[in-house]
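One such shown below:

_____
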Amino acid sequence: MYNEPIFLKPVFKDRIWGGTKLREEFGYEIPTETTGECWGISAHAHGPSEVLNGPLKGESLNSVWDKHRELFADQEGEDFPLLVKILDAKTDLSVQVHPDDSYAREVEGEAFGKTECWYVIDCEPGAELVYGHHAGSKLQFEEMVNENRWDELLRKVAIKPGDFVYVPNGTIHAIGAGTMILETQQSSDVTYRVYDYDRRDDEGNLRELHIEKSIEVAMIPHEDADFEPVLSGNDDLRIKKLVKESYFTVYHWNLAGAVAEVENPSYLLVSVLDGEGELQVEGGTTSTFSKGDHFIVPSTIKSFGMNGDARFIVSHPSI
């Protein structure tokens, strides 16, 4: 039986809006001064994570998914379902929208559409997100886009560190400048840009927009998602269930001491936002973790102990 967590090597992505905070805040060795994304837990073909420890060391997560499904509660499906990122938005991201599963499969040949959620790790004072829009119909939406009435169309939301935002597919959205988030999402890389502030790439070209597809998949009119965080645990491990929906369940864990037994409902995707500690598996290993680590607790570990002082975002496919 596999009885230790699976630590993963992040994959980094250069982005026109990226910066250097992934190095400054987490100590990552980033490839460029405009590194926008850390794919911490990924089996997507555009950036699969590599296993750093144990008997599977050196294998990619997509290979582990294909060959060792017992580590993932024998979950069905050709593709690993989730992807966990940390994003450093030095400048505004494009205003964008993502399709649902059926549209992504039929039009893009992707296994999944993209529903996602964000935990705000840090942001500058006065930081904002684009979340939704003010158009009442597709015709009005299209008119406002074609007439560049962005201030009138886009709905701005103020944010602060510790906020959580749930972004179902079809939601018009954008992460604002000066914001660092942890994103939990379906394992998809399909993005349709609605607006990009007339930015140009390194060769001086305007970045591609996807207006027609965006209008086809956007939620019009916009409706805020309905979810309610739930608190549990004790002083040693305070657990806040941030959202449970059809694709994933996401939690914020605050570890401040020692807890003898944490149950594993299937398999857990764990990202350490801050602090350090140990994870103990009965009859197995004791593993240390620290800020910036990403690991999976496989389903072969039914429960485990933890001690330390640390904060995490934890997720699993909804069951």
Notes: The longest helix spans residues 138-146. The longest strand covers residues 248-263. The two ends are 23 Å apart (CA to CA).
